Amino acid sequence: MMKEAKQPFVFYTRLHLQELTSRKARSLKELLENIREVSGSVIYHHTHSFLQRYQSLSPEPPNDFAYWVGEVLGEQKLAEELASIDTIQFSSIRALRNKLTQTIASHIRQMERTGQGQFRVASRQEQFHFVKSISFIFPTPYLAHDLLEFVEVLKKVTINSIYFHVFEAKLRLEKSVNDFSFWIDTNLDMPALAEKLARLDPYTYNLQGLRAKIIDSINNYIKENSK
After folding, report:
1. Structural domain of 208
2. From the centroid of its chain, how far is CA 184?
3. Contacts of residue 119, Cβ cutoff 8 Å, sequence gap at least 6
4. Model-level pTM?
């Protein structure tokens, strides 16, 4: 059960810097045009800024696009559609960007076809400012050589480390699963546990809750397989 991993898990952490871009939007069409053209770091920021700002608050963080479309432009139907996009389904920023643009473009076409909607233009004070998220990734002193060590380190590392290995590694680095699942599967040969962690929806937890859920899942697995 406590066999040594082929390669130890190296825990990384990250710091992030928010940088204001020169891009702005005052209408749906301007929002759509910019979402198509901005860098992936901008898309990432506006779909994950709630998690990064309010790491202790809980679930289902709204993305910034949905909030602005609903609160400033008054397009509640589109706001709901944007807010309902299930980020966990996407393994790349590119795929997430495509879903956002398809959703907005479809709504605009419907407005033009039916004549419904006002195509409201926001004031300069309420215009959407595009921000990008710049991450700095570096290793921590922590290594795990087996599953018990892994659990103990999970209790110690900061939530920034949890965030990096679960969110950024999968979406920004375009890995198919989070780092924890990948290591457990490929280095410990425990596919059942790896799949269980991969199936977790991290967007339904705050970061401390996510840490606790991962630890609880591993401890339950250890108990079940040590009988």
Report:
1. 9-14+136-224
2. 21
3. 27, 28, 29, 111
4. 0.85
29 and 119 part of one domain:
yes
User: How far is residue 172's CA from residue 48's CA, in Å, rounded to a whole number?
Assistant: 11
When divided into structural domains, the chain yields a total of 2
Q: What is the DSSP string of 27-76?
A: SHHHHHHHHHHS-HHHHHHHHHHHHHH-TTS-S-PPPHHHHHHHHTS--H
Domain boundary among 75, 97, 132: 132
Q: What are the per-10-residue average pLDDT scores of the chain (227 residues)?
A: 88 93 97 97 90 55 87 94 90 94 96 84 97 93 96 96 92 86 96 95 88 96 86
Do 196 and 97 belong together in one domain?
no
Note every long-range contact of 180-189, with CB atoms under 8 Å and residues 24 or more positions apart, other chains counting: 180/9, 180/214, 183/5, 183/7, 183/9, 184/147, 184/150, 186/6, 187/5, 187/6, 187/7, 187/9, 188/3, 188/5, 188/146, 188/147
Q: Scanning the structure block, which residue is given the tokens 């290594």?
A: 143
* Dihedrals phi, psi of 144, to nearest 5 degrees: -130, 125
- Asked whether the beta carbons of 96 and 39 are under 8 A apart, the reply is no
Residues 109 and 211 in one domain: no
